[in-house]
Amino acid sequence: MPESEWSRENLSYALIYFPWIGGLIGLITYGIFRLKEWCAVQGTGISDLTFLVFMVLVPVLITGGIHMDGFMDTQDALSSYQPKERRLEILKDSHAGAFAILSCTVYFLCCTAIYASLTERSVKVTALGFLLSRTLSGLSVVTFPQAKKDGLAATFAENAAKKTVRSVLGCYLVILCGVLIVAGKGAGTAAVAAAGAVFFCYYRMSLKNFGGITGDLAGYFLQMCEIWIAAAAVGADILLTNI
To answer: Whose CB among 16, 68, 127, 232 lies 3.0–4.6 Å from 190's, allowing a Cys bridge?
Structure first.
């Protein structure tokens, strides 16, 4: 992306475009899945695992791993069982602790296992989930209490045209939930329910353990939301197919 100035004017509506990044990730993920299916039919001999690894890595390659960084920092902070102030300090620590590394490894292994069971229907739900997770994450930034007055989330929250951003992201949310439920049927409904449950748990966890949200916590939510959307879509699709 071309470099842009971080001015108040530019930041006012930045969160409105945040879900579009998820749209790009979802489109590439779906494209890799279709390529995997085509190669299997053509008998190219390329292992399915190769495509699975690429699908798992797409979000990291597109975003530079910024949300996974937040996920890892949050896992370190939560696993420390320290007072709130100390947890916030751990979030700012640039060093990755043991729990961050373990959590990251488990996360990618779980993603690979889930993606190995993707079908034509569940992969579409999973792809749309990248938009849904970013819509909810953006809403949290302009809606939830902030744990700190500085940091990335606080910067976006302070400079955002909150009323407009909430309205636009709210419209995104309604449209995405409708599309997922109608197009994905049982898999889409399960994905929407999973996203809602993770969003509620994210709110409760943030207030209880940190006194509000930060950029790291928003990244943590996004990663958790995406993996639970995929897991719910795959699980529901398998269950309904076997009934």
So the answer is: 232
Q: Considering the entire predicted model, what is its pTM?
A: 0.91
Check: CB of residue 129 under 8 Å from CB of residue 230: yes
SS3 for the chain is: CCCCCCCHHHHCCHHHHHHHHHHHHHHHHHHHHHHHHHHHHHCCCCCHHHHHHHHHHHHHHHHCCHHHHHHHHHHHHHHHCCCHHHHHHHHHCCCCCHHHHHHHHHHHHHHHHHHCCCCHHHHHHHHHHHHHHHHHHHHHHHHCCECCCCCHHHHHHHHCCHHHHHHHHHHHHHHHHHHHHHHHHHHHHHHHHHHHHHHHHHHHHHHHHHCCECHHHHHHHHHHHHHHHHHHHHHHHHHHHHC
Q: Is the Cβ–Cβ distance between 208 and 115 less than 8 Å?
A: no
Each residue's pLDDT tens digit, 71-117: 999 998 888 888 888 888 888 877 888 888 999 999 999 999 999 99
Angle at the Cα of 18 (from 105 to 149), degrees rounded to 5?
85
Residue from 150, 161, 126 nearest 234 by CA = 126
The count of C-alpha atoms lying within 13 angstroms of the C-alpha of 128, restricted to the half-sphere facing its C-beta, is 25
Look up residue 89 and give its two tokens. Answer: 């300090």
- Compute the distance between CA of residue 227 and CA of residue 122 in angstroms, rounded to an integer: 13
